[in-house]
Amino acid sequence: MALVTAEGVEVRVGNKRLLHDVDLRIEAGEIVTVIGPNGAGKSTLLKAIIGAMPISAGRIDKRASLRIGYTPQKVQLEKTMPITAARFLSLAGKLPKGARADVLEKTDVAALRDVQLADLSGGEFQRVLLARALLRKPDLLILDEPTQGLDQPAEARFYRLLADVRKETGAAVLMVSHDLHVVMAESDRVVCLNGHVCCSGAPAQVSEDPGYKELFGARAELALYEHQHDHSHEGCSHD
Amino acid sequence: MIDDFLLRALIAGAVIALAAAPLGSLVVWRRMAYFGDATGHAGLLGVALGLALGLPMMLGVAMLAGAMALVVTYMMRRGDYAVDTVLGVFAHSALAIGLVAASLLPGVRLNLMDTLLGDILSVSWADIVMISLGSAGILGIMAWRWRSLLNGTLSPELLVAEGGSLMWDRLIFTLTLALFVALAMKLVGVLLITAMLILPAAAARPMARSPEQMVVFAAIIGIVAVVAGLGFSWITDAPAGPSIVAMSSVGFILSNLLKLLKN
Questions:
Q1: CA nearest B72: which of B179, B156, B173, B150?
Q2: Residue A69 half-sphere exposure toward CB, CA atoms < 13 A
Q3: Could you say which of A51, A72, A84 has the minimum Cβ distance to residue B210?
């Protein structure tokens, strides 16, 4: 059975329709990456799946007792609170001591224990967020732009860590990413979103899709991301 | 031997400062100072309602502040207006309508100064019992839901993803805030309730390394401000509520200066 099945999902905020007619399935162990321009509703989709955003139509079914590990976007975490990385991790709840030490070592955050959350570098912060998600022994990791603001070496390290984690735990991954080159190399499935699902499938298949080329243009072939403010094309444009 | 009324004021003020510490820290972390204001100002309307219906003042204030908190939360979620607009509209409307209602109610004579600025020197032992029970309730709820409240502050999405309930988080936060407004109203008045909440917490921020440390420091600063403010008021005859808040702001300045000097 799929971990998550979404059918015909629509999300509205006020009079604005952020998402419509979104179908999505996530199977155990697979890596699904959501790509799309800014404002395409990528974060909204993740929030709807975890249940933090009410849906106005459609349905989202989750496998019974599905354990989700979630990392919010860096900018969305409140920084006014004085809190060390260790205390932040302890807020994930009670866990066996061994399990905690194991995760801290794997994500290489043990040395950051006493550092204030607000003082962590981008890469360190993402590792702490990932550690917290992993502490919950998730069946599904949901990562919202986990490499935002990282330089390329840090980004490469993060994806290597993620690959290791998946190999070890078998957790499925649903993430939003702007790094097209990594997306195409590392994902089992890519969902191209722009208010609705333009196209989805294996990376090779998606990169040939007219909808994908339309959204990401000639640069898609270079696997570089640059969002476009106006989509005046047919098919995959905003409506 | 200090006078009995001064002793009562000290006890009431210290108890309120204790309850304000965790709640005020949450208000500061959640950037909801103006939300506290809107809820506090609704207290004035609550006083008028209480007087009109013959209810105890604290009950009227708690009901109105609670209703205000829920309506404002709903309006902010709808997103038709910017958050600061919603808060400004409700805070000032509540203040104005409360003043109008109080003046129009037949047979009601409201001491405006006391309502707006409080009268901590007139608290009775019965008031202290109420304030203590209410504060114990606030502290108990805070302790019981603390981990969840911290998670909801750091990231509402994280709270939900880990199985928490955003509705409970918001409900507990807003209703304890309403309860606090009802308790603190008599001491410092509707205008300075937010100050009681956020000033000690803001003063504690530069010194704190953990959320719990900030709460403890806020409690200490709050209690010192109550003692110093009442002492100042005793000597100079300045109004007591504003003196307490003024002492908190001295604490805020000192703690920030210390932090600057340390760096």
A1: B173
A2: 25
A3: A84
